Amino acid sequence: MRILLLILCTLPLPASDRFAWWTGFQDPELVRVVHAAIEKSFSVRLAQARLAEKGAGVKSAKAERLPSIDLRGQNGFVRGVIPSAGGGAPGAFIGPKERGVVQNSAEARFDLDIWQRKKLANDAASAEYSAAQKRALAEAIVSAQRAGKLYIDLRGVQQRLQIGNQELATLRELLDVTQARRRAGLVNQGAEAATQAEVARVEARLRALEEEADTLVVRIAGETGQTSGAWKSLRSSPASVPLHQALVPGQIPAERLAERPDVEESRQLLAAAMALRKEAKRARLPQLQIVGSVGRLAESFPGLLLGSSNIFTIGNSLLMPLFDGGRLRANFEIRSAQEQQAAIRLEETIARAANELATAQTLFLAAIEKRQSLERARTASAEEAEVAEQSFRSGLGEWSEVLERKRRVFAQEEELVINRAAQSRAQIDIYAALAGSWQE
After folding, report:
1. What pTM does this model have?
2. Which residue from 5, 40, 219, 285 has the least number of CB within 10 angstroms?
3. Which pLDDT does position 431 carry in this prediction?
């Protein structure tokens, strides 16, 4: 299956820098994950199936505006004047009793559509097809967004695992030193037990992170419509969290919200609902058709072979609804309520789009601001930890102080990874909120 869609960056950048948002992260594995999500996710495939359905609906609505030709065969009983199959003159009086007749004919019918009911139905079908196209685009956006964020989460967990393993190695080294000093009588047994407890705590946290990484791989597989085995390489090849360098705070064009596929979808659904309401209102008006038929009529099947039983009709038909138990009025009320719902849904979609963009931008800017303070704190803590460890190894410091300083450094490094992942996730949310520039 070919790549369904391509999301292009919508920020005010030079033309040469307008790539798909995932390309801007400069991570080949992220590109692979997003492409797989767009191509193979169940939601996108389902949206494509709906699109095919609506396309068939457009063809059906267009066909309704064309003349129809049917072949009819029937038999029954009549009383009156019919062509005689026994050789009598055509138009002979059969008698007061019912006589069996057989007829076959080709009938043509064309609705003049003087009130444009069928045109309105065709307009509604076309609008629903356009809405289905936009829904397919929206599903691709969401699938790319979800897959991208899952990938970011996986890389974040893998980085945290690397930091945790570094912390575990440091604690085990510290434990060896503590045990040596306890044997030398420089520290008590409580210091050794506390260090062992810290080692156990970090080991438990690493096991939890391993399970989280495995779960994320399974979720990526589900989002891309594949088995988890297809993404084993992500699990076995850790990498750092990618970050899009081209997104500049304060340069997000909110006016692009009107071009979001889900907004366009809601607008098209409203247009379809308006057309269907008008069509339902005009259903109570008379219908005028041109009708014609050509065939044969006789008293028996062998009589159909006689040329004297040929019949031909042409004329018009007028149908005026007089009583239907309130069905047409109820249908009009249904269509009116559906139009109102479509209008409310459009308002809701626009409001949600604005909220998603505002939220993503707020989180992105907050992550940038927080990162600056985290980096300063991490630098200061690393210097303090180094001084404390040197003092401890020289016999001047306490083990508890070294342990606390080390724990603080690793915790801040982990916070930096979490912050970077949050910043990257917010970037993806911004591009998803803006919908990007799309092409098939």
Report:
1. 0.78
2. 285
3. 85
First to last CA, the chain: 13
Q: In the structure encoding, which two tokens stand for residue 281, read together?
A: 């209102």
Tokens encoding 324: 């239907």
CB 128 within 8 A of CB 121: no
Picking from 239, 156, 169, the residue whose alpha carbon sits closest to that of residue 199 is: 169
Helix (H) / strand (E) element for 408: namely helix 399-434
Q: Is 184 helix (H, G, I), strand (E, B) or coil?
A: coil
Can you say how many angstroms the Cα of residue 89 is from the centroid of all Cα atoms in its chain? Answer: 72
Written as one letter, the residue type at 120 is L
Query: b vs e for 347-381, b when ≥16 Cβ sit within 10 Å of the residue's Cβ?
Result: eebbeebeebbeebbebbeebeebbeebeeebeeb
Radius of gyration of the chain (CA): 38
CA 254/CA 356 separation, integer angstroms: 11
Per-10-residue mean pLDDT of the chain, 440 residues long, equals 36 38 89 91 91 94 88 67 51 55 80 89 95 92 93 96 90 80 73 83 94 95 89 90 73 69 94 95 89 78 66 84 89 95 95 89 90 89 83 72 82 93 92 60
- Pairwise CA distance, residues 345 & 378, whole Å: 48
Alpha-carbon distance 425 to 436, whole Å? 16
Q: How far apart are CA 329 and CA 334, in angstroms?
A: 9
- Partners of 44 in the β-ladder: none
- Tokens representing residue 189 in the block: 């047994």
Please check whether residue 309 is in contact with residue 303, taking contact to mean a CB–CB distance below 8 angstroms: yes
Answer whether 120's CB lies under 8 Å from 275's CB.
yes
Per-residue pLDDT at 260: 87
Kindly list the distances between the CA atom of residue 200 and the CA atoms of 174, 211, 261, in Å, as whole numbers in the listed order. Answer: 13, 17, 51
Domains in the chain: ranges and CATH: 6-64+116-284+326-439 (1.20.1600.10), 66-112+287-320 (2.20.200.10)
Q: How many residues does the chain have?
A: 440
The CA distances from residue 241 to 266, 367, 430, in Å, are 36, 14, 17
Tokens representing 72? 């009819």
Q: Distance (Å, rounded) from C-alpha 119 to C-alpha 113?
A: 8
For 286, the token pair is 């008379």
294: left (phi over 0), alpha (psi -120 to 50) or beta: beta
